[in-house]
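for the writeup, i need someone to sanity check this before i put it in the appendix. the sequnce is what the collaborator sent (i think, or maybe the updated version? ugh). structure was predicted straight from it, no edits. if anything looks off just tell me and ill rerun, i have time this weekend
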Amino acid sequence: MKKIFYSIISLALLACGGDDKETALTSDISSEIQVEDEIISAKQIKELKNASKVVYTLPSPVEMADILNETKAVYDVYILNDPDAIDGYVTDMKRAMNLGVYFADLSFTSMFDYAQEAMRFMGAAQAMSDELNIQGVFTEDVMMRIEENMSNKDSLIDIVGSTYMDTDLYLQDNERPVVAKAILAGAWLEGLYIAVSLKTDSEQESQIWQKVGEQKPALGNLVRLLEDCKDAQFDSLLIDLRSLAKTFEAVKLDYQSTKAVTDKASKRTTLGGNLNVLIDEKTYNQIKAQTIALRNNITK
């Protein structure tokens, strides 16, 4: 099950793809019920399916690196949340959302060989996890594995993904869905924030716009996921997310599907096709401004 979410905490960092990835991912979740002698309940499967709808467009680490290389984008580690800001988060909602933020930041620094910064973000995530009383996730063994793999990018990203998955399953097992969804919301928003904060050549900007535009269905799914909680703690966040979704309405997604193909061995069905994203500069700039304001409101 953990491998399904190998890249989950990359969370919208210039995501690419379309409904084919959602179909394949949810198919995997349905079929892989027993992993490492642990039975995943039907309720957990449903929650994982819902979360997958927010992040199904995620690229692999290799794809992410290729995208940045192609667009000549420049990333500054200082745009990420301050790992020393943890003492300022005093409510469980703030802690949960910023745990998600730190997961996204940790994934990004791990992906691009910022080993020193990755350790700082891991420390921040561990501290937030402790404050939220999430037990048995950031163990001594996990921390040792991280230290031992600081020079192995792929292994480090895998460890981060497994840690996120363990956190989510712990919260589901202990019936704390509000915290789990707040973490997901914080991570997704941080991913979108990083995407709109990338600096690239003017000739390459349209590629960044398109990757951001592809997040339109993920945003809609995130809004519905939080609405389903029916928890007043999400009221303010939902107002802002609905406003952002309103801006995203100007983004047009034209998905041209082809014949579905099923792999008999893996029982995995994928849909071929291309996703064309129509987004103009004005819409992108509005999305960028709203995203930065929303993210900064979470991390302040």
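The longest helix spans residues 153-173. The radius of gyration is 18 Å.
thx in advance!!
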